[in-house]
Design a protein that fits this description.
The protein has 568 residues and is an alpha/beta fold. It has helices at 11-42, 48-95, 108-150, 152-163, 165-199, 201-206, 210-247, 249-256, 258-263, 268-309, 367-374, 397-401, 418-423, 431-440, 444-448, 467-481, 497-510, 547-553, 556-567; strands spanning 328-338, 341-351, 356-361, 382-387, 390-391, 404-407, 485-489, 516-520, 532-537, 540-545. It has a domain at 5-309: Up-down Bundle (ABC transporter transmembrane region fold), CATH 1.20.1560. The strands form two sheets. A six-stranded mixed sheet has the order 6-7-8-3-9-10, with helices on both faces. Strands 2-1-4-5 form a four-stranded antiparallel sheet, with helices on one face. α2 (48-95) packs antiparallel against α3, α5 (165-199) crosses α10 (268-309) and α14 (431-440) crosses α16. InterPro entries: AAA+_ATPase, ABC1_TM_dom, ABC1_TM_sf, ABC_transporter-like_ATP-bd, ABC_transporter-like_CS, P-loop_NTPase, Type_1_exporter.
């Protein structure tokens, strides 16, 4: 992937930059015109017509500057916005290819910060910083050149002082490199903390830990404030010292201009400009210094964007699974979320084609991880996974997910209507197909009872629906997609008895069509009729067989079954 592709400048940006430079040149030409005007006034050789002519020239220059500035500014804005749009689209495409495991390793804050703050910062470079620098540098060069024409030694001195900007920037850039990067990283961590706090606010309050988590978020913000202070505290003194040295040029030029003025080498007007223009130049150099410091800081954002762009991607193989055999096989598969803490340890098993395989076991034993690996939400650390005899380790995740419908215990819904939330499963589905899917999922009745029916907005993540309603919509999605592989992850785990019965009926309707099904269940009675039951324990397959076969072995499954019967 070409790392610099999204940063490519466009014609709008280039036009804006050229016009800005021209506007800077015209701005400097004003001083030449004023100099000539004052000279003529001093010699009293001007007529009213000549004064009006000079005034007309100044007006023309002013009008051209206004036009140049307006068009240039507009083009910069358009060009910068277009580049930032391309970057966001590029990142959006990139996020689809980044392994999902990255999103579970504290990267969410970084990605959010990159997509928002970093892209905005880079847009600021294009729309403001580069054009401002170009204009001010152009104007500074013209002023130095003009002063050199008036009195060469003064121009040389001003040039030498202006060149002090180079070591000043070197020291400033060191500060940016050290503290700016830390500041950006801390900002990403603060964003992660805020996102977690907002997402979990209900849970935090329910368990009375809102204050504790708030302290955590506040701590992250304090850390960001501290590093921001250090950043400014180390950068400001450098800029302050440089500005003092820079402004010393004003009295120095006044002083060195006295002798040539007394000797008649330069006239009154020239000396007046030698006293005035260095002040303007000092101000311009100070602004350039600040803009360069800011520019370097903003480039950190570009580097952050590049880091995301250069992140490893999932395999891009486009090999299709499209056959009639959707048997799933794990061969010596190991996986861990954290290095050195394995969740699955060298497990092997086969999920027969168009059969129901149930997975049971203690909480945290690795049941859900198995489903996530089948769906390629994560990549195995070692071993191979096959679907229909094809190794999926090297297949693009999207190719595998095309063959999978998944019903999770934690249903994610978009802030959209019920109809569109279901249609996400198959974007080309008709309203009639959506209706049939909902009837099979036992959710048509409650949808029709809503004021707007299928066009009812359900709020952020479906917060306007109950848990049972959300789950049935998830099942409707799975029915509509009608994939040959169905993964069910404790779909009834968090429901009350009434909703559990309705959802169980919906799942039964879902299972009427022959599919390769892997089901995780929190109650064994749900899976006792499964074609195969896998008992997961401590990252491995402890037992495997049918309900009756496992009971005869009098092992872990039997213990779990007896314990459940005692409760019931």
């Amino acid at each position: 992937m070409g790392g610099n592709v999204p940063f490519k400048k466009n014609k709008h940006f280039n036009i804006g930059l050229i016009l800005t430079i021209i506007e800077g040149i015209l701005s400097g030409s004003n001083y030449v015109v004023f100099y000539l005007l004052i000279l003529m006034l001093q010699g009293r050789s001007l007529t009213v017509e000549q004064i009006l002519g000079v005034a007309g020239i100044l007006i023309v220059i002013f009008c051209i500057r206004v036009i140049m500035y307006s068009i240039g500014y507009t083009q910069n804005q358009i060009g910068g916005a277009a580049v930032s749009k391309n970057i966001r689209l590029f990142l959006g495409d990139k996020f689809k290819k980044i392994p999902l495991l990255r999103f579970t390793k504290g990267q969410i804050g970084q990605y959010v910060n990159t997509m928002t703050s970093d892209v905005n910062s880079y847009e600021q470079i294009l729309t403001h910083k580069i054009s401002n620098l170009a204009k001010n540098i152009t104007l500074s060069v013209i002023i130095v050149a003009f002063i050199s024409c008036l009195y060469l030694p003064a121009g040389i001195i001003l040039l030498l002082f202006a060149l002090l900007l180079i070591p000043e920037m070197w020291f400033s850039f060191r500060v940016v490199k050290k503290y700016g990067t830390i500041k950006n990283t801390t900002a990403a961590e603060a964003v992660s903390s805020i996102v977690e706090y907002v997402d979990g606010i209900q849970t935090f309050r329910a368990y009375g830990v809102g204050g504790i988590k708030n302290k955590t978020t506040t701590k992250a913000m304090h850390e960001f404030s501290d590093v921001s202070f250090k950043y400014e505290a180390h950068g400001i003194p450098i800029n302050f010292i440089f500005n003092i040295i820079n402004w010393l040029t004003v009295p120095l030029i006044m002083f060195i201009g006295i002798l040539p003025w007394k000797s008649g080498e330069i006239d009154n007007v020239a000396y007046l400009l030698l006293c005035m223009l260095p002040m303007l130049l000092a101000k311009l150099i100070g602004v350039i210094s600040v803009d360069l410091f800011s520019y370097k800081n903003l480039l950190i954002s570009k580097n952050n964007i590049l880091k995301v762009i250069k992140e490893p991607e999932e395999n891009e193989s486009e090999e299709l699974l499209g056959n009639d055999n959707y048997e799933i096989e794990f061969k010596n598969v190991s996986f861990s979320y954290i290095q050195g803490e394995p969740v699955l340890k060298n497990i092997s098993f086969i999920v027969p084609n168009q059969k129901l395989t149930a997975i049971v076991g203690d909480s945290g034993s690795g049941k859900s991880t198995i489903l996530n690996l089948i769906a390629k939400y994560y990549e195995v650390n070692s071993g191979t996974i096959l679907v229909g005899g094809k190794i999926i380790n090297n297949l693009a995740a999207e190719q595998v997910l095309k063959q999978i419908s998944m019903v999770d215990q934690d249903v994610f819904l978009f802030n959209d209507t019920i109809r569109e939330n279901i249609r996400y499963a198959r974007p080309d589905a008709t309203d009639e197909e959506i209706l049939l899917a909902c009837k099979a999922a036992n959710c048509d009745e409650f949808i029709c009872n809503m004021e707007k029916g299928y066009d009812t907005p359900i709020g952020e993540n479906g917060n306007l629906l109950s848990g049972g309603e959300r789950q049935r919509i998830s099942i409707a999605r799975a029915i509509l997609k009608n994939s040959p592989i169905l993964l069910l992850d404790e779909a009834t785990a968090s429901l009350d008895i009434e909703n559990e019965l309705v959802v169980k009926e919906a799942i039964a309707n879902l299972l009427k069509v022959k599919k390769t099904v892997v089901m995780i269940a929190h109650t064994l009675s749900i899976v006792k009729n499964a074609d195969q039951i896998l008992v997961v324990s401590d990252g491995g397959i402890a037992e495997m067989g049918t309900h009756d076969e496992l009971l005869k072995r009098n092992g872990k499954y039997t213990t779990m079954w007896n314990a459940e019967q005692e409760i019931m």
